[in-house]
Amino acid sequence: MNVIELFKKLLESPSVTPEDGGIFEFLAEYLSEFQIIRLDHEGVKNLFAYRCFGVGKHLCFAGHVDVVPAGEGWNSDPFIATEKEGYIYARGAQDMKSGVAAFVQALKEAKEYEGTLSILLTSDEEGPAKYGTVEVLAYLKEHDLLPDAVVVAEPTCEEHFGDAIKVGRRGSINGVIEILGKQGHAAYPEKAINPVHQIAPVLSTIAGAFLDEGDEYFAPSQLVITDIRAGIETTNVSPGKLRMMFNVRNSTRTDQEKIASFIDSQLEGLDYTLNLDQTAYPFVTDANTTIVRTLSDAIQEVCNLTPKNSTAGGTSDARFVAAYGIDVIEFGVINDTIHAPNERTSIDEVKNLYTVFTKLINNFR
Hints:
Elements: H1 3-11, H2 23-30, E1 35-38, E2 46-52, E3 57-64, E4 82-84, E5 87-89, H3 97-108, E6 115-122, H4 133-142, E7 149-152, E8 164-166, E9 168-169, E10 172-180, E11 184-185, H5 195-206, E12 223-230, E13 237-238, E14 241-248, H6 256-266, E15 272-280, E16 283-284, H7 290-303, E17 308-310, H8 318-322, E18 327-330, E19 344-346, H9 347-363
Parallel strand pairs: 3-6, 3-7, 7-18, 8-17
Antiparallel strand pairs: 1-2, 2-6, 4-5, 5-19, 9-16, 10-14, 10-15, 11-13, 12-14
Helix pairs in contact: 1-3, 3-9, 7-9
């Protein structure tokens, strides 16, 4: 089986979160020379496979086999790998069965390596992510199997294959503000305290506010308002409470304390509460680390491109790896149809990704 045949096999195994579509049973047989560890928990399927060639660094490739539901608007069956004009269409083609196929095939064909090669896969990345990669990493730490470096094969490229590596990710902080006023008749505004009127003079300074200036790795942390509501949906009652929700994709230069201080400076004198919840923490892997330099060299050799080091986008399971102090980066195919109808990736991209990973394995020391 070559990498494209493997790619099609994975695509035609329906694996909507938290199902694996039988992929892990297949991989356990396909990777016959690897030691297989299954860590299923609370309906989530996880697989860790490793092969020790000798004394040296432990390089791990990680990702997920689960996909989001297909939804509507497809021109072909989302769980049949449909080849057309150099592309393969199916749910998960970009996110991220292309990456899984590329590194599985590269590892299966690896004949020698100065250390340990491994694969970490879960069926719960698109869902709550509570019993997937987190559980596997805890097991690896307990059994002294944590890798030295990890490549997560999420789709990272922007315009051309090979143009971007993710060396980190922004964090994510959710906020809820409640401003308390005094409900009253709209005809007697002097007898009410209208929280909409209270926030109106400062709303423009809160909405879209930049909380830092960013740095060489991160864009500025920006406060994005996602919902505002007040009142009881009638025209003759002034509201007694306003609720506003926001999200900050934060760099390492902004934290919850900084956000709370900013909100307090804007809402000084108002009767309000603020609740913050951090669902992901920012991290960055230094560009001078061996894994970044070796992968960059492999990409340049295959693609004749110098990839930029990016931290853009949402969150991924790389954040769980980074929490253990492991050098972790992400690299995969172009990201332009993930989670959309007619998700697809090109055959050439999958072949080139497989080649990049093969060169990385050969040169990582």
